[in-house]
């Protein structure tokens, strides 16, 4: 199952990152270009792409996404065999870094930029989901086979889809609360 989850998350993330990169280059070459994801004053990729937060390391963040999600797809393809321990450790480290970065970007979008990018939000979701399932696999690998930690892990595995769904719903609630002034005008 992990291979499928990582493959789907990787492909969705890769598509979103690639589309964001194309949109960013279009915007850079034509200042009058309106990105396909600029829908209204709040859901507006153009205003997100024009911020320093969109190029934290001096190049578009979406290029990190292309590399990271391509790697995720590659790891998913290797999951038919048992990947080497260093691959899984690297995957956990990479997904943890991606999760931290994505949550920083969520904060920036909501409370500094005051705009949302649909492609970015797709990336947020797939990073949360991929992180969760990689973390469950890592916990299974390193957790003792008996005792309270194993029982907690078995409980988490039995409700495996609930934590990422709740995680995403918290972000949706933050979005609803932050931009309620706008959403309420649409009712």
List the topology elements.
Layout: H1 2-29, H2 45-49, H3 61-78, H4 85-113, H5 118-142, H6 148-158, H7 162-178, H8 180-183
Helix pairs in contact: 1-3, 1-5, 4-5, 5-7
Helix content: over 70%
Report the structural category. Answer: mainly alpha
Q: Averaging pLDDT over every residue, what do you get?
A: 94
Number of domains: 1
Q: What ranges have pLDDT less than 50 throughout 5 or more consecutive residues?
A: none
Which CATH architecture would you pick? Up-down Bundle
Brief summary of the model shown:
The chain has 187 residues and is mainly alpha-helical. Helices cover 73% and strands 0% of the residues. The longest helix has 29 residues, at 85-113.
Task: Write up this protein.
It is a single chain. With 187 residues, this protein is mainly alpha-helical. The chain contains eight helices and no strands. The model has no long low-confidence stretch (mean pLDDT 94).
Descriptive key words:
187 residues, 73% helix, 8 helices, mainly alpha, de novo design (two linked rop proteins), single chain
